[in-house]
Amino acid sequence: MAHILLIDFGSTFTKLTAVCTTKQDVIGSASHFTTVDTDIRIGYHNALDELTKRLGFKPSFDEVIACSSAAGGLKMAAIGLIEELTVEAAKRVCLGAGAKVDLVYSHHLNKSEVREIVEHKTDIILLAGGADGGNSECVLFNARLLGQMGVKIPIIYAGNKSCIDEIEEIFTEFSIDGYFAENVMPKINQLNIHSARERIRLLFLEKIIEAKGIKMIESEIDKVILPTPEAVLQAATLLAKGYGVEQGIGEIVMVDIGGATTDMYSISHPTRRGDVVLHGLEEPFAKRTVEGDLGMRYSAKGILKSLSKEEIHSIKQSSGIDIEAEINYLSNHVDALPQSEHQEVVDTILAQLCTYKAMSRHAGKMEEVYTPLGKVYNQTGKDLSMIETVIGTGGVVINSKNPTEILAHATNIHHHPFELRPEKPRYYLDKDYLMSAMGLLSQKEPILALQIMKKHLLPLN
Amino acid sequence: MKSIVIGVIGADVHAVGNKIIEYTLQNAGYNVVNIGVLSSQEDFINAAIETNAPLIMVSSLYGHGEIDCRGMRDKCIEAGIPHVLLYVGGNIVVGKQDFDEVKKRFYAMGFNRVYGPGTNIDTALSDIKEDLGE
C-alpha cells in the first residue's frame, strides 16, 4: 500500500490531495491560505494538520509532489517577428508550459518595451523570430538590445537555428543568463512546442521556484515538479487520450474561471472535416489559452470593457442587474463571496460572460468563400463543433447551483455562425477540484490518475 | 539555400499548378515555402519576412488576379521588404485581353515578372536564376 500526497501551491490556497494506491482513490483533501510571503511551509503545515484531522490518522506518505502557481505564477514575455507567425508560436509555447504571458512583442523591440519587461518582474523571456534559415536580423537586434539594456532575466532562445552561434556570442558578450531550445516555428505555419516547453519547465524548477521562495518546501517534500496550469493541461490530455488499455473519454474542452483569469483548454484535433482549407499557424492538440482580462474579481473590469453599451443595457433589461455598478463593487472587493441570491445571479452572469468571450477567442473561425468552383470553407484555428464533452472547473462553476447555465455559454448560444464552438456537448463538473492533483499523479501513476478523474467527474444535465 | 514563397491568391482553390511549381523549384534547389490556396497578400508577405525570402511567386487561375494583387507592393514596402521580387502568373485577368497591356498594368502595380496562361514553369525558372543572381 502506498500513499501519495499531491500539493497545489496556488496563488491563494495551498490545496492537498491524498491518494491511496491500494484503494485506488482519493482518501482526503484539505486546504489553507498560501503563505509564500512569509514561509510557504506554514500554510502547508496547517493544511496537513487539517488533512490529518479529516482522515482521523496521521498518514505517512511514500511520495509527496507539488505543482505551484504561487507568488504570481510563472510570468513570461514572448518575443517573435510576425504577429501571426513566430509571435503567436512563442506565445502558445509559453501558455502550453503553464505560464502567464502578459507581454507579447513583435518585430524590433524598443527600449521602453525592454524596460516594461524588467518592470513587470518577468521570470523568463522566450526569444523567437524567423523560420530556420530565414530572418535572423530581427532576433539578433532584439538579443543585442536586451543585452545592452542589462537585462538579467533568464532568456530562452528558440528562434531561427541558423543564427544560434551569433546569439551565443551576444549572450556571452553581455553576460546574459541564456538558454537554447529548438525553433518554435522551424517552417512557416509549423508549430514546434516540445523542446522550448521542456526548457521552460526545467528553468522553472532550477531557478524560478527558488527565486519565489517556493523551493524551501523541498526540505520537507520530494519535489515541486510543474507549474500548476501545465499539470492541469497534462491531466486534461490524459483524460482525453487515455493511457494504454485504460481508455480516455475522447476530445474535451475545459473551462476554468478564476478571479484573475479565464483559462480555456481544448484537447482535440484541429478539424475532423475533409472539405475545409486550413489556414494559419498549426494548432496544438492540447491547447491552452488564458484571458488575463476576463476574471470574476481582479479582472472583472476587463469584462466590463469588453461589453458594448447595448449588451450592458440588455443585461439590465433581462435580469434587472446594473452590471456596471456590480463590477465596480466586486473589483474593489476581491474577497467577496456571494451571500445573497442577487449576488449569486451577478456571479453567474459574470461567469457566463467570461465563458462566452474566452471561448470566442479560443475557438477557430470558419469563413465561407465563394469561388468560381463553388463554395469553399476556409478555417483558421480549431474546430470544436464536434466536441462532445465540456468540463467546468474553478470556484464559481463548482459552487454554482446551476453550473450548466454557465457552461452552456461555451456553445453558440448567441448564434455567431462562423465561430467553431462546441455544438451539442454534454457537461461535466470537476467537483472535487482534482485536475491539477491528477496532472501531478499522472507523472507517476498515469492509469490511476485517469481512473480517479473518470470516477470523480460529475455529469450534469 | 534561398527561399521562395509560393501560393494561390484570393478566393482561388486551384492547387494543381501550385504543386507543379513547388516540385520544380524544389528540384532546382530552392527552399520552397508553399502557403497553399486561398492565401491573402498578408500571408505571402508574412511568410517572406519570416523566411527571409527574396522572391514571392503569386499564382491566380480564376481571373480575379488583378483585383487580388492590387496594393501588394505597397504592403511590402510598409512591411519592411520593399525590394522583394514579386512574380505573378496564371489566368490573371478576366477574358481575352492583349497580354502586353496586362503586363504593363501589373508592372505598374510593382510586379517584376508577369506570366500569361500556358507559360512553361521552366521559363520562370530561368528568370528566377537570373533575378537571384545564380
Mean pLDDT of chain A: 95
Proportion of residues in extended strands of chain B? 15-25%
Mean pLDDT reading of chain B:
94
Name the quaternary structure: heterodimer
Biggest beta sheet summary of chain B: 5 strands, parallel
| Order of strands, widest sheet of chain A | 16-14-13-19-20-21
Radius of gyration of chain B equals: 13 Å
The CATH architecture of chain B comes to 3-Layer(aba) Sandwich
**CATH uppermost class of chain B:** Alpha Beta
How would you characterize the largest beta sheet of chain A? 6 strands, mixed
Taking all Cα atoms into account, the compactness measure Rg of chain A is 23 Å
* Portion of residues within helices of chain B: 40-55%
Residue ranges of chain A: pLDDT <50 for 5 or more in a row?
A: none
Continuous helix count of chain A: 15
Report what the structure shows.
The complex is a heterodimer of chains A (461) and B (134). Chain A has 461 residues and is α/β, with parallel strands linked by helices. Chain A has 15 helices and 21 strands. In chain A, helix 4 packs parallel to helix 5, helix 7 packs across helix 14 and helix 14 runs antiparallel to helix 15. Chain B is an alpha/beta fold and 134 residues long. Chain B has a single domain, classed as Rossmann fold (3-Layer(aba) Sandwich). Chain B is 42% helix and 19% strand. Chain B has six helices and five strands. Classes of the chains: A alpha/beta (461), B alpha/beta (134). Chains A and B meet through helix 2 and strand 17 of A and helix 2 of B.
Attribute tags:
heterodimer; A: 461 residues; alpha/beta; Nucleotidyltransferase, domain 5; six-stranded mixed beta sheet; five-stranded mixed beta sheet; globular; B: 134 residues; Rossmann fold; five-stranded parallel beta sheet; 5 strands; 19% strand
Q: In a few lines, what is going on in this structure?
A:
The complex is a heterodimer of chains A (461) and B (134). Chain A has three domains: 3-71 and 214-221, ATPase, nucleotide binding domain (Nucleotidyltransferase, domain 5, 2-Layer Sandwich), CATH 3.30.420.40; 75-207, Rossmann fold; 234-459. Chain A is built from 15 helices and 21 strands.
